[in-house]
C-alpha cells in the first residue's frame, strides 16, 4: 500500500446539445429579456484601443456541411497583449465573446479588436491569437483551437512550431480578405481538418 | 498572491469518446486526428470574470424567472445544489454557472424543438448564478421531463439539466449534464453512454438529497462539479536548467 493522492477528478463533459442557445445565448433563440444583460455579447466596448477587425467563417463537419447549430466562445488579450484582469489591461476589452453559427447559412461573425502578442511563462512570445472553444450537438467535449492572422509574424510562435505536418499550420491562420476583414473556417474532420488543442 | 502554475493536463480517459456510432451526430463531428497537447499558457490560464452586478435576483430561480415572478412554472419543484471544486479540492469561488433544460413535459423553449408536449407559458428554461465563497450554488427549478429524439429508431433522453461552468480560466471551461438518481432511461441513453466508464457516468447522476429538501415545498438533488486544477510547486518559475 502507498499513501493516497488527494486529488479529485474533473467532472466528465457531455454534449451541449442542439438547444445550447437557450442557456448561453437566450436572445438567439427568441428568449431575450429573461436576463437584464446576457453574457459575452461583445468582446469590446466603445473606446477599445487597437484595430477593430471582423472575422467571418463557418464550422464544417466531415462531409463539408456547415453546422447550423454550433456555438463558439472566444477569449483573447487586448491590443497590447494583456489579458482582461491583468495589470494595465485595456478597460474597453472584456476579451470574451459568444457567437453562433447562423441558423440558415451556418456563417458566424466575430467583431473584436486585434490582439497583440502575448508573453509566455518561459519568456517566449506567442504570435497574436484568439482562443476558441466550440460546442454543438454531436461534439461530446468542447473543442479548443486558435485563430492566428495571416498578416502577422507567426514564425516564432511556440504552438504553431509544434505542428509536425506544416501544411496543417494553415488551418489555424485566418485569411485576410481586406482591411480589418478575415475569414476563418473550421473543419471538424477529414480533409483540411483543423488542428484542435489540448492545453 | 501565489503565482499559480499551469493547468493540470486534462485526463481525457474520464471524458466521453468524441466518436460514437450510437450517437449518430458525433460520427461526422468528431476530429479524426489527435489533439495537439502542450502545457497551458496565459491564454488558457486567464479567463473572463463576471461580477455580481450582472446577475439578477431571480436568475437562479427557473420557476419564476421567465415571468419575472408573476406566475410559477408547472412541474415538480426541485432544488439543484452543490459545490464547484477544482482537482486539488479547492472551492471555485465566484464562478458563473448557467443551466438550461426542458420543461416538465420534456419540451424546450427553442425554435428548433417541435416535440408535441406543450410549452409552459411560465417557463423559460434557463438560469444562472455565481458560486459563493465556498464554491456553493443553488438553483430552484422544476424536474425536466424525458423526451424522444431522432437518433436510432426509438431513443429517449433521460431527465437532465445542462450545466455550463467557467472556473477562473478559459482552459477550465466545461459543459456537462446532470441526470437524476433512479431514472431508468439513463441506462438506455446513447449520449450518456458516450462516457464509457460506468463509474464516471455515475458522477453525473445527482442523488436525491432529502436533508436539503424543504418540507411541503421542494425536493433537493445534489450535484457537485470538479474543474481542472493548477499545478503549484515551488519550482515553476525558475529559468531553464536551474
Question: What value does the Rg of chain B take, in angstroms?
Answer: 20 Å
CATH superfamily grouping of chain B: Aromatic compound dioxygenase
- Biggest sheet layout of chain B: 5 strands, mixed
Count every helix of chain A, treating DSSP H or I runs of 4 or more residues as helices.
2
| Separate helix tally of chain B | 2
CATH architecture of chain A: Sandwich
Portion of residues in beta strands of chain A equals 25-35%
Judging from the principal axes of the Cα atoms, what is the shape of chain B? globular
Assigned CATH superfamily of chain A:
Aromatic compound dioxygenase
Instruction: Indicate the CATH topology of chain A.
Output: Protocatechuate 3,4-Dioxygenase, subunit A
Rg of chain A over CA atoms, rounded to whole Å, is: 18 Å
CATH A-level architecture of chain B: Sandwich
Strand content of chain B: 15-25%
Largest interface: A-B, 81 and 87 residues
Q: Which whole number gives the mean pLDDT of chain A?
A: 96
Unreliable stretches of chain B, pLDDT < 50, 5 or more residues? none
Helix content of chain B: under 10%
Amino acid at each position: 500500500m502507498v499513501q493516497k493522492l488527494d486529488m479529485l477528478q474533473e467532472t466528465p463533459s457531455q454534449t451541449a446539445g442542439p438547444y445550447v442557445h437557450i442557456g448561453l445565448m437566450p436572445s438567439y433563440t427568441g428568449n431575450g429579456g429573461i436576463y437584464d444583460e446576457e453574457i459575452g455579447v461583445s468582446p469590446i466596448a466603445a473606446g477599445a484601443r487597437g484595430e477593430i477587425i471582423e472575422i467571418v467563417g463557418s464550422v464544417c463537419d466531415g462531409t463539408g456541411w456547415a453546422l447550423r447549430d454550433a456555438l463558439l466562445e472566444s477569449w483573447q488579450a487586448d491590443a497590447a497583449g494583456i489579458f482582461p484582469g491583468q495589470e494595465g489591461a485595456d478597460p474597453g476589452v472584456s476579451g470574451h465573446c459568444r457567437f453562433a453559427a447562423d441558423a440558415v447559412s451556418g456563417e458566424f461573425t466575430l467583431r473584436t479588436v486585434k490582439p497583440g502578442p502575448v508573453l509566455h511563462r518561459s519568456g517566449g512570445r506567442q504570435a497574436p491569437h484568439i482562443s476558441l472553444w466550440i460546442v454543438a450537438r454531436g461534439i461530446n467535449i468542447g473543442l479548443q483551437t486558435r485563430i492566428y492572422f495571416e498578416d502577422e509574424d507567426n514564425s516564432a510562435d511556440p504552438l504553431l512550431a509544434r505542428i509536425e505536418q506544416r501544411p496543417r499550420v494553415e488551418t489555424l491562420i485566418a485569411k485576410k480578405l481586406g482591411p480589418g476583414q478575415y475569414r476563418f473556417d473550421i473543419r471538424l474532420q477529414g480533409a483540411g481538418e483543423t488542428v484542435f488543442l489540448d492545453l | 498572491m501565489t503565482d499559480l502554475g499551469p493547468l493540470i493536463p486534462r485526463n481525457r480517459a474520464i471524458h466521453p469518446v468524441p466518436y460514437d456510432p450510437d450517437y449518430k451526430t458525433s460520427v461526422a463531428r468528431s476530429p479524426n486526428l489527435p489533439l495537439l497537447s502542450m502545457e497551458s499558457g496565459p491564454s488558457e490560464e486567464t479567463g473572463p470574470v463576471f461580477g455580481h452586478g450582472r446577475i439578477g435576483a431571480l436568475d437562479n430561480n427557473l420557476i419564476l424567472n421567465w415571468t419575472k415572478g408573476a406566475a410559477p412554472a408547472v412541474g415538480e419543484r426541485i432544488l439543484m445544489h452543490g459545490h464547484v471544486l477544482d482537482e486539488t479540492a479547492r472551492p471555485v469561488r465566484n464562478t458563473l454557472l448557467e443551466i438550461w433544460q426542458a420543461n416538465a413535459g420534456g419540451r424546450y423553449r427553442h425554435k428548433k424543438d417541435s416535440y408535441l408536449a406543450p410549452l409552459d407559458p411560465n417557463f423559460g428554461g434557463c438560469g444562472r448564478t455565481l458560486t459563493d465563497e465556498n464554491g456553493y450554488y443553488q438553483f430552484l427549478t422544476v424536474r425536466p421531463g424525458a423526451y424522444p429524439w431522432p437518433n436510432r429508431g426509438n431513443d429517449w433522453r433521460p431527465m437532465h439539466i445542462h450545466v455550463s461552468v467557467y472556473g477562473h480560466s478559459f482552459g477550465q471551461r466545461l459543459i456537462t449534464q446532470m441526470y437524476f438518481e433512479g431514472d431508468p432511461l439513463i441506462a438506455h441513453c446513447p449520449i450518456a453512454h458516450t462516457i464509457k466508464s460506468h463509474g464516471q457516468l455515475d458522477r453525473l447522476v445527482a442523488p436525491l438529497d432529502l436533508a436539503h429538501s424543504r418540507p411541503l415545498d421542494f425536493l433537493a438533488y445534489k450535484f457537485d462539479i470538479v474543474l481542472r486544477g493548477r499545478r503549484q510547486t515551488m519550482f515553476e518559475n525558475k529559468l531553464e536548467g536551474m
